[in-house]
């Protein structure tokens, strides 16, 4: 999907949002907008404040400070009205396992006050979208996780909300099912639905039009995946393949030409100023210490590299991220 921003016709406006729980500030002065049909991804470590922020925008938590508008409705003043204009789904989204597919859809249709011919049409849409045609009477407890996920999405959009919140919706789902789920998100976006999604999967974040990186309750960075990659590293990235990455990591952390070194699977990623100048110097540095490698070469940064750099940049030295 092409990256695009939709600054006009904002569907979500967060203006210096704050949420405190006693002395603890979970969300700290966060501001952003999300346009019509835009897919905004939220990334951040566990406990960063992503879910708290979504719950405020859904009208489930009252902000301690700041202001938020969702579908033109003030979240703090009229949370009940907000919930009529949004869809919400998470990894803990509760389908009723002892009910059939069709019974779940009818139940959620009743919650959203969708009735008559419109309900019949929306149920037919949800069944086709979830790939459950012919399985309408199947108990939900017998469905695979991928089918449950798509059915849960169908339930969340029965009332055709203009804004959809997805809080870790694909956690624990296999990669193929996750990809099919994102195809559905793209289709909703093309229809003008605004989607805000939190995820721990870096490949999913690449699918978003823009990404907001949250750490310790604060907005650390905001931009498209390509913009964040350009802005975050301020240098070049090298891939190092070797048989003993632990030994090389210890050595390279002290190397004069290496600004940062981090494990990446069975390899290492090195941040340097200029790959063309620094790569030969790093090879010489390792050779002097009789350390062996199979490959060192420049690579394009991934969102995981960006995530690590930006999070580490916001954490005071000596404090865990």
Blueprint (SSEs and pairs):
Layout (H helix, E strand, L loop, with lengths): L9 E12 L2 E12 L3 E5 L6 H8 L7 E6 L2 E2 L4 H5 L2 E5 L10 H11 L4 H15 L14 H12 L6 E5 L7 H16 L3 E5 L3 H4 L4 E6 L2 E6 L1 H9 L2 E6 L3 H8 L7 E5 L2 E6 L2 H14 L6 E5 L3 H12 L7
Parallel strand pairs: 3-8, 3-9, 6-7, 7-8
Antiparallel strand pairs: 1-2, 1-4, 4-5, 9-10, 11-13, 11-14, 12-13
Question: How would you characterize this protein structure?
Answer:
With about 325 residues, the chain is an alpha/beta fold. Helix content is about 35%, strand content about 25%. The chain has helices spanning about 50-55, 80-85, 100-110, 115-130, 145-155, 175-190, 200-205, 225-235, 245-250, 275-290, 305-315, and strands at about 10-20, 25-35, 40-45, 65-70, 75, 85-90, 165, 195-200, 210-215, 220-225, 235-240, 260-265, 265-270, 295-300. Strands 6-7-8-3-9-10 form a six-stranded mixed beta sheet, sandwiched between helices. Strands 2-1-4-5 form a four-stranded antiparallel beta sheet. A hairpin with a 2-residue loop joins β9 (about 210-215) and β10. α4 runs antiparallel to α5. The two termini are about 30 Å apart.
